[in-house]
TrEMBL record:
<dbReference type="InterPro" id="IPR012976">
    <property type="entry name" value="NOSIC"/>
</dbReference>
<dbReference type="InterPro" id="IPR045056">
    <property type="entry name" value="Nop56/Nop58"/>
</dbReference>
<dbReference type="InterPro" id="IPR042239">
    <property type="entry name" value="Nop_C"/>
</dbReference>
<dbReference type="Pfam" id="PF01798">
    <property type="entry name" value="Nop"/>
</dbReference>
<dbReference type="GO" id="GO:0042254">
    <property type="term" value="P:ribosome biogenesis"/>
</dbReference>
<dbReference type="InterPro" id="IPR002687">
    <property type="entry name" value="Nop_dom"/>
</dbReference>
<feature type="domain" description="Nop">
    <location>
        <begin position="255"/>
        <end position="373"/>
    </location>
</feature>
<dbReference type="InterPro" id="IPR036070">
    <property type="entry name" value="Nop_dom_sf"/>
</dbReference>
<dbReference type="GO" id="GO:0031428">
    <property type="term" value="C:box C/D methylation guide snoRNP complex"/>
</dbReference>
<dbReference type="GO" id="GO:0030515">
    <property type="term" value="F:snoRNA binding"/>
</dbReference>
<keyword id="KW-0539">Nucleus</keyword>
<dbReference type="GO" id="GO:0032040">
    <property type="term" value="C:small-subunit processome"/>
</dbReference>
<keyword id="KW-0690">Ribosome biogenesis</keyword>
<protein>
    <submittedName>
        <fullName>Nucleolar protein 58</fullName>
    </submittedName>
</protein>
<comment type="similarity">
    <text>Belongs to the NOP5/NOP56 family.</text>
</comment>
Length: 407
């Protein structure tokens, strides 16, 4: 029997006679690139030309059976080289492997390391259509940006509130507040017409009247300058946040269209980021998806032996918000199961239309309506021998009479 042993330096044929293994012939790769190309073909279940020529040249007139470590390679050799080949795993290959270095060049270990690195790099393939890392980083950036914007807006409100405190009580929108700060600056140096580009005439009159009777203190020009600079930087953050949201929406439509149609782009991206990847989210059971984002509350409730939370990130969904407080837990459980299905379709399926997300969303809304209608079902309530069929209907006591005790 003849044994074929392929390695990083070439191919070797060994002849086994009476339990003795002897080297028959070797083929050395001419370069490291040749070894990489040959092993790529072997990994793709193809027969390299150099191996084919080597076997035909060596075993052309021999009737011995060739023993190979790979079943698919054995069938390729039999069909293409017309050589009898069998798939064999025995102790002979272990013996050959332990002493293979002495039959090749001194840089055997270096070539083995080079080949393993090259093949590992070839296996790392990135599909541009499924780069969920981009979504994970962008949604984390968006969340950090929201925290930064809220922090700066709070600081600016307190800072500018020293000069014009009434403006903060009148304006709740942070972006509008910052735009007004840039226009007003000093409360005694602006007119109503300056505000008409930002707000309507009624609100401009209110702001102007408040500025005339404001209880704020005077601040220096340096203070105003720094407040204005900070306000401009936060407004730029608002503009970049809008661009980042558009970017996430476009990426989510490519990566997870069904999950996007069901949960929205931002909540869907948060679920993917929390899971680590879309493939990981697809592997999660629905019970885990339901509590993603509520791990701290879950472990705290388990530690204190109290009621566990019913939802995590999915609580921000409009579907859960549409349900009443009593039914939020049931809706969250149903929604988590649909999220798992959408994630598996997006991760493993080839459909990019997102139609399943739309179908599942309609099913969840029907589920919510059924739960709400079940709570408002008819109830019988007994009142003095009478039944009120509708519990929401007020009781009419006009027919009731009071008995007055006669003296």
């Amino acid at each position: 029997m003849i044994y074929l042993y392929e390695n990083s330096c070439g191919y070797a044929l060994f002849n086994k006679i009476d339990d003795k293994v002897e080297l028959l012939k070797t083929y050395n790769f001419k370069s490291s690139e040749e070894s990489v190309d040959s092993y790529k073909e072997l990994l793709n279940n193809e027969l390299p030309n150099n191996l084919k020529d080597f076997l035909i040249l060596t075993l052309k007139n021999k009737n011995d059976v060739l023993c190979v470590r790979d079943d698919k390679l054995s069938s390729k050799i039999t069909s293409e080289c017309d050589i009898k080949s069998n798939f064999v795993i025995d102790d002979t290959f272990k013996e050959i492997r332990n002493g293979i270095e002495k039959y090749f060049t001194s840089d055997f270990l270096y070539r083995t390391l080079y080949l393993s690195h090259k093949l590992s790099m070839e296996k790392i393939n990135i599909n541009s259509d499924k780069i969920d890392t981009m979504v994970i980083q962008s949604i984390n950036l968006l969340l950090d940006l929201d925290k930064d914007i809220n922090l700066h807006c709070m600081r600016i409100r307190e800072w500018y509130g020293i000069h014009f405190p009434e403006l903060s009580l009148l304006i709740d929108d942070n972006l509008l507040y910052l735009q007004l700060v840039l226009v007003i600056k000093r409360k005694n140096s602006f007119t109503k017409s300056d505000l008409l580009e930002i707000v309507d005439e009624d609100l401009a009159c209110k702001i102007h009247n408040l500025s005339e009777n404001s209880m704020g203190a005077d601040i220096t020009d340096l203070d105003i300058e720094n407040i204005v600079l900070d306000s401009k930087s936060v407004i730029k953050s608002f503009e970049y946040r809008t661009q980042l949201s558009t970017y996430i929406k476009e990426k989510m439509a490519i990566i997870a269209p069904n999950l996007t149609n069901l949960m929205g782009d931002l909540i869907g991206a948060r679920l993917i980021a929390k899971a680590g990847s879309l493939d990981t989210l697809a592997k999660f059971p629905s019970s885990t998806v339901q509590l993603l984002g509520a791990e701290k509350s879950l472990f705290q409730s388990l530690r204190n032996k109290t009621n566990t939370p019913k939802y995590g990130i999915i609580f921000d969904s409009s579907i859960v918000g549409y349900a009443s407080t009593k039914n939020k837990g049931k809706v969250a459980r149903s929604l988590a199961s649909k999220i798992s299905l959408c994630a598996r379709i997006d991760s493993l399926g080839k459909d990019t239309s997102g139609k399943f997300g739309v179908i599942f969303k309609e099913q969840i809304y029907r589920r919510v309506k059924n739960l709400e209608n079940r709570n408002v079902s008819k109830k019988k309530i007994e009142v003095k021998g009478k039944f009120i069929i509708n519990a929401d209907k007020k009781y009419d006591g006009s027919d009731d009479t009071k008995r007055i005790k006669k003296n």
